[in-house]
Amino acid sequence: MAVSVTIDDVAAHAGVSIKTVSRVVNREANVSEKTRNKVMAAIEALNYRPNQAARGLAGRRSYLIGVVYDNISPNYLINLQSGMIETCHAASYGLALCPVAYAETGLVEHVMAWVRHSQVDGVLLTPPLTDCAPLLVALEKAGVPVVLVSSLGAGQVPAVVIDEVEAARQMTLHLIALGHTEIGFIKGPAAHSASQSRYEGFKAALAGAGIAINGAYVVEGRFDFDSGEIAAQRLLKGKRPTAIFASNDDMAAGVLHAAHKLGIAIPEALAVVGFDDTPISRQVWPSLTTIRQPIREMGNHAADLLLQLIAKKVLVEDGSSMVFQHGFELKVRGSSQKTSI
Amino acid sequence: MAVSVTIDDVAAHAGVSIKTVSRVVNREANVSEKTRNKVMAAIEALNYRPNQAARGLAGRRSYLIGVVYDNISPNYLINLQSGMIETCHAASYGLALCPVAYAETGLVEHVMAWVRHSQVDGVLLTPPLTDCAPLLVALEKAGVPVVLVSSLGAGQVPAVVIDEVEAARQMTLHLIALGHTEIGFIKGPAAHSASQSRYEGFKAALAGAGIAINGAYVVEGRFDFDSGEIAAQRLLKGKRPTAIFASNDDMAAGVLHAAHKLGIAIPEALAVVGFDDTPISRQVWPSLTTIRQPIREMGNHAADLLLQLIAKKVLVEDGSSMVFQHGFELKVRGSSQKTSI
DNA sequence: TTGAAAGCGCTAACAC
DNA sequence: GTGTTAGCGCTTTCAA
User: Fold this and answer.
1) Which UniProt keywords apply (chains A, B) (predicted)?
2) Regarding the domain with residue range B164-293, which homologous superfamily does it belong to in the CATH classification?
3) CA B53 / C1′ D3 distance in Å
4) By CB atoms within 10 Å of each CB, which of A29, A50, A194, A209 scores lowest?
5) Do B116 and A71 touch (CB under 8 A)?
6) Cβ atoms within 10 Å, residue A289
7) DSSP letters spanning A47-58
8) A339 contact B CB<8A
9) Which one of B51, B225, B282 has the shortest CB-CB distance to A283?
10) Contact criterion met (CB < 8 Å) for A119 and B95
11) How many helices (H) and strands (E) does chain B have?
């Protein structure tokens, strides 16, 4: 870390006090246009960059926000991370990573120890950690600002989401429009709120179309490839559905794998659809019909929200909702109807 | 960032000076066993965690190392990241991320600006950035310690790698052992050193088996799925090879996609193999024969090496080589020979 | 083997 | 609108 030019150098160069430089750097009010320009010029001329350690020490902050995640889907995560980094960087903040295993014992203690150790100013929570109520309580008690991604959570925690229920409903309507009435559904783990929402949307579409739901066609997976394959093996035994809606792409890819093994033609003998539009959806054969979420933008938004919370520019008030909904898109590909891909 | 207990509290509790506490925390020599124990007990009792900002300010370091990467393969990256984070965390260091696009103009300036701004104490470079000579020069000139991952680079830069040539050679021998003599090869981008090494291994195996190389069967891709598919379309037109070795899994998956479209049976009519053992290799149909690298462990090792370089426990001396080779593993699956997967 | 003093570069609180 | 002063919590330097 080669830092040489300090705030004193800039102040001297601009002929002002260090406090004024500090004001300009931190975009505070009460600096005349003229002074600001002088200081900016000095910063430019000297190529000055504030020392984060000194800022943090004096300001009692770390200029760091954390993301806690369970590595379920690398594609989802990397995209989310880049969105978050982009926003953090623009605000001279850093992003600290806390990878965990959702199922591990002592999860809450692990995360809280990390929060204390890394001294982050706030925390972004991704699914399924968004659904861990004890963790939310512990963070709240510790006074750490939190923003949830892709999940509503419980209570008043700010969140950046898509309308999962509506997305799943539209996906189901797509299958119904293709003539399917015998539709299998692979749920995610019960503990994930996304599992519930997607299943709800599925049920709503069926109900709307007057199609009775067949309990034997609904099974549960773990959101990963293997569990999708296993679930499909159960669904495809004996009398079977003509379409399967898997709650995410990884499981849908597992369904394709199982169908291939059984020699079932896709989409002629079986339509398969997923959710998330991860790269795997385009890399399997045939490509998966799925739902695209603007993940990177959601990462931007979540980080931005958290920074505002930290700066107390936005306050979480009792009774006010801080849920921000992003749009989604139905991507129709070869796994549900004959196309060129 | 709720930090309350400071080094003074610990010193008071243990009945020593703050310097002694500092010595214990930093594992310095010249502290008696008895004093050390007293201090450790106090740290434990008060649940003390050193303030990174203060450490950084006083010690003129950021306690941060950076990874620069182009998001080519999320799976590879997430695994590498977790390895690096693990090691960093154990050393009370943080990991800062710098995502870039290898092809962008002003890449070197971008990275150097980030290095100055984030004030990292050292940098880890992943492929293909390891092959960007101007960047290596700029980092060296700035006096920033660097470690390369998965690439030899040029000159004396420390690196953590696998023997790519040998791995590609063994993969090719596997195909030859299955009876193939007409083998197609999809290279990676010429600018990546991995592309060269893997191709070399391929050629070495053919030469060793007395098989002449057919120039028409060697094409170049960009290490991504789409380029693999396009390359396969070319290779599979007219007289075609009986096996295709793609230099990474993403391209191999693209080959499978193309073969499926053309109705070519895998592995009966065409054997396909990849490289990297990314999750996609198990998620396509049939599963891909590939080479597994211990990515996470390489992440550990690279971070560890960089920390030693920063602490000057290890020095890069002229004439000494600092290349550390990890083992690899040939994973045989259904895309090259009939198996159950 | 241990400690005292100085100061890293910045922000906060308050003065002007 | 601008400047002064006093630390933030630690490592460094030097002395004991």
Assistant:
1) DNA-binding, Transcription, Transcription regulation
2) Response regulator (3.40.50.2300)
3) 26
4) A29
5) no
6) 28
7) T----HHHHHHH
8) no
9) B225
10) no
11) 13, 12
